[in-house]
Amino acid sequence: MKGAQAWRLGSMGDMQILPGSRHRPPLKRPIWIISLVSLVCLFLVCAYIYPPQGSAACYVFSSRGCKVLTNWLPPSPTRELSDEEIASQVVIRDILSNPPVQSKNPKIAFMFLTPSSLPFEKLWDMFFRGHEGKFSVYVHASKGKPVHVSRYFLNRDIRSDEVVWGKISMVDAEKRLLAHALQDTDNQHFVLLSESCVPLHNFDYIYNYLMHANMSFVDCFLDPGPHGNGRYSEHMLPEVEKKDFRKGAQWFSMRRQHALIVMADSLYYSRFRDYCKLANFPLSSFPKVILKSSLPTLPGFDGKNCIADEHYLPTFFNMIDPGGIANWSVTHVDWSERKWHPKSYKAQDVTEDLLNNITSIDLSIHVTSEAKSERLVQPCLWNGIKRPCYLFARKFYPETVDKLMTLLNF
Predict the structure, then answer these.
(1) Which of 103, 185, 345, 375 is the least buried, fewest Cβ under 10 Å from its Cβ?
(2) Pairing state of beta strands 107-114 and 392-393?
């Protein structure tokens, strides 16, 4: 009995020295895990609301950049399109998706936007000679009935209207020319030219360059300065956002499909007609540098000078078919003097070296209107191949016609 009792006591003694079981609170969690999860959630929410603005910030997290983060996040809510926007997008999409009407005799439409007579008709006559059936000519004379000296220009005047520099009437004239040229189904490419434009190459070179191009040559670039996005008006919202606003020279060369969508557009055109306006005072009163504070305030004007022909087509194509345009014009113009008008060439300026220099340029250069004047340089790619940029050039004084005919000698 004593042995048994001793055994039990010994056992109890052993039990007394064993540690008792711990009782943890049922809701307690490691604080560091909760903190980490909270930080990750906060980061994702901030990244969704304020996405990274530069690529460097994206690559901190992944070598694949912002795309990784974007794929993790839900898509941003998009606004509901108006009936007019839906109708416009449907028409534009169908025109671009359908192949153009094939022509057995494809032609280039040469569309001249001029105040009256064309001082270089003799040069153009030499250029066109022997290529009948491959081109059409259309003349929009806004001030006086032109007197023609070339048979290719006879009876080629269209109904014209007044054109004021910098105003929507310039775009109206361009669309009027396109409308007349589109009536001929053989016209497959459409070139807008001024009275001071001259061809730089022979007809065959220009014909092959344009007819076999897989794009339209519409000038388009982003200018964040006062004479670029500084001209944007928020009255254009919601259809035209500031991020889509672009600038470019008006002298285009475009394929038939693009000419058709320009004619089909009324929505975006109306925004530029109503809110891209030039101050209503003489151009001669413009100082070299216009101060925003000195401009009058007009309804929907926002105290800005907006030149419609420099912004409508670049913005329109940037929004609806950015990959379908080259972003440069095939018409050369020299803005190096940084004035309101480009450099004009007199007879003494026209030399073989000048023409060779222009025709050898294979880089498109845009200069922004910011104080630092950033140069935007891109190669002129024709169907993916680097080639010289320019087929035409301006502005030449009428006195240069004979010298140009001698030097060009088509």
Answers:
(1) 375
(2) unpaired
Instruction: Tell me the two tokens of residue 196.
Output: 């001071």
CA 368 to chain centre: 14
Question: 255-308 pLDDT, tens per residue?
Answer: 999 999 999 999 999 999 999 988 654 434 343 333 333 344 445 556 678 999
Phi-psi region of 14 (alpha: psi -120 to 50; beta: other; left: phi over 0): alpha
- Rounded to 5°, angle at Cα 195 from 329 and 289: 65
SS3 325: strand
| Runs of H (alpha helix) within 277-351 | 308-320
Provide the residue ranges of all domains of the chain, joining segments of one domain with +: 83-279+303-408
Cα-Cα end-to-end distance for the chain: 134
Q: How many CA atoms lie within 13 A of 377 on its CB side?
A: 4
Paired with 135 in beta bridges are 108
Kindly give, in sequence order, each residue whose CB lies less than 8 Å from that of residue 280, ignoring residues fewer than 6 positions away: 296, 298
393 — alpha (psi -120 to 50), left (phi > 0) or beta?
A: beta
Rounded CA separation 96/88 (Å): 12
